[in-house]
Specification:
With 282 residues, this protein is α+β, with helices and mostly antiparallel strands. The protein is 16% helix and 41% strand. The strands form 4 sheets. It has an 8-stranded antiparallel beta sheet with strand order 3-4-5-6-7-8-9-10, with helices on one face. A 7-stranded antiparallel beta sheet has the order 13-14-15-19-18-17-16. Strands 11-12-20 form a 3-stranded antiparallel beta sheet. It is globular, with a radius of gyration of 25 Å. It starts with a helix and ends with a strand. The N terminus is likely disordered.
């Protein structure tokens, strides 16, 4: 009987362990969030909600939902930092910011004695803007300083076939892509065959999402933006062998992919500044 008792105890222990492992697996296994969407198809679990003004899913803390015409500006700051700002002059309740450290946030307008001031309710984040200058304080400490819209010493470039133009810093070179005259290449040593970044035009496109899905790269930090008033996205991409940042917009059935194959803050800041001057010329 003693042996039988021991055997039954061992079996009970094994059974208990098996049940415990099963239960642990059920508790620890991450649950998929793909099905958690609202009536518009917005991924609620990821913080998206429907913006009726633009008829798309957005994160409200990243972009202000409004029909107002956006006005973009890029501020180049000290320590190779930058601030990409989108203002809504006719509905100036928020400013949308994309910082060079990858953060994106929509900040409400606050009372200011001079200039424009946008701040979170607890004052933990404050964006100050006066004329062509700006700075940011976080919890009382200035984190983005000496920021200014730089318009001097810029070189103008137009690609007539591609239907666009932009200003670029004199430390870069720009050339028409010899393999496709609608495309352009730019960067420190760019020529008609290669460049650190560039502009690519892809015709007959239906949507930005379908375009990105067909590219052999992984995208993250997808932020809704506007280029020359045309809605688009700013993304960070990871590819082989290069990674970088791109602005992708859809205009008249054409995808415009404005990119930089670099993750250095200085190069990304220069790309942000270039995009802030980007114009469609058709």
């Amino acid at each position: 009987m003693k042996k039988i008792h021991i055997g039954m105890t061992a079996a009970g222990i094994i059974f208990a362990i098996a049940v415990g492992v099963y239960a642990w697996g059920r508790l620890e296994k991450p649950q998929p969030i793909g099905g958690q969407k609202d009536a518009h198809g917005c991924l609620v679990a990821a913080g998206y909600s429907w913006c009726d003004a633009r008829k798309e899913c957005e994160r409200p803390w990243e972009r202000y939902c409004t029909t107002a015409t956006p006005k973009a500006a890029t501020f180049i700051c000290a320590d190779e930092k930058s601030i990409s700002a989108i203002f809504y002059p006719s509905d100036d309740k928020y400013v949308d910011l994309v910082l060079s450290d990858g953060r994106a946030l929509s900040v409400p307008h606050a009372i200011s004695a001079s200039g424009a001031r946008y701040a979170k309710a607890d004052e933990s984040f404050v964006f100050w803007n006066k004329g062509d200058t700006a700075f940011i304080t976080e919890k009382g400490t200035t984190t983005f300083s000496g920021c200014a819209i730089t318009t001097q010493n810029k070189v103008q470039f137009t690609n007539s076939k591609g239907g666009y133009g932009f200003d670029y810093p004199p430390v870069w070179k720009v050339a028409i892509n010899q393999y496709n005259n609608s495309n352009s290449l730019f960067g420190p040593n760019a020529d008609s065959a290669s460049g650190l970044g560039g502009v690519e035009v892809f015709p007959n496109q239906k949507s930005i999402d379908s375009f990105l899905a067909g590219v052999a790269a992984q995208y993250d930090n997808k932020i809704t933006i506007a280029v020359d008033g045309v809605p688009g996205v700013r993304v960070h991409y990871k590819g082989t062998p290069v990674s970088g940042t791109a602005f992708v917009v859809l205009k008249d059935g054409n995808i415009f992919n404005i990119y930089i194959n670099s993750e250095k803050g200085e190069n990304v800041s220069l790309l942000d500044q270039l995009v802030s001057t980007f114009k469609f010329v058709r």
